[in-house]
Specification:
Order of helices and strands: HHHHH
Shape: globular
Structural class: mainly alpha
Distance between the termini: 8 Å
Strand content: under 5%
Number of helices: 5
Largest sheet: none
Length: about 80
């Protein structure tokens, strides 16, 4: 996370990568992208930077099932852009 509070999260490469993942995954599954995670959850993922599926469940909207289904992919993206 950049130290500059003026940085727009939407401009960060990690934001773009998560958004692209969400879009592709939703198309694969035939569901709306926000069913995977919404923009507020995506911003919290970027701010909190969970490193484990257990930490991922601390993000609002991520229960055991969602963390198990999408967790490894999300954690890998976050790790790529640390």
């Amino acid at each position: 996370m950049p130290d500059n509070p003026q940085t727009n999260l939407e401009d960060l490469p990690v934001y773009k990568a998560l958004k692209e993942y969400r879009y592709k995954k939703s198309r694969d599954e035939g569901i709306k992208p926000y069913f995977i995670f919404n923009n507020a959850q995506m911003e919290e993922l970027i701010r909190e930077r969970p490193r484990t599926k257990s930490e991922l469940t601390n993000i609002a909207g991520f229960g055991e099932v969602k963390a198990e289904k999408y967790g490894q992919d999300i954690l890998s993206i976050l790790e790529q852009y640390k």
